[in-house]
Amino acid sequence: VQLQASGGGLVQPGESLTLSCVMSGFSLNDYTIGWSRQAPGKEREGIICASRNGYSKYYRDTLEGRSTISRDSAKNTVDLQISSLEPEDTALYFCKASSPGRPTYSGRGTLVTVSS
Prior knowledge:
Blueprint: E1 2-6, E2 9-11, E3 17-24, E4 32-38, E5 45-50, E6 56-58, E7 67-72, E8 77-82, E9 91-98, E10 105-106, E11 110-114
Parallel strand pairs: 2-11
Antiparallel strand pairs: 1-3, 3-8, 4-5, 4-9, 5-6, 7-8, 9-10, 9-11
């Protein structure tokens, strides 16, 4: 099982970014998928998740309306789009897959730095 997040980098405030996570070794159709992040010096926090039936839940009010999660079951990939990025969005972003009665999977993160 592998989860590989990518798409991070240095962006300027106000810009948008799409992070991608390629998942292998299991079927995405059986899992709730989500993204979390960990800012420097802070604990990891959930951002958003999407259930198998497409219902999305935002964990962070500050990102609601600025973030969208999507999955491509054929490619086993999950994307996170964030718009109007702010310096406070600087963090290591992680993707995760979970399902009742099954192991929870999380991979290495991808670093997003928002700075002018």
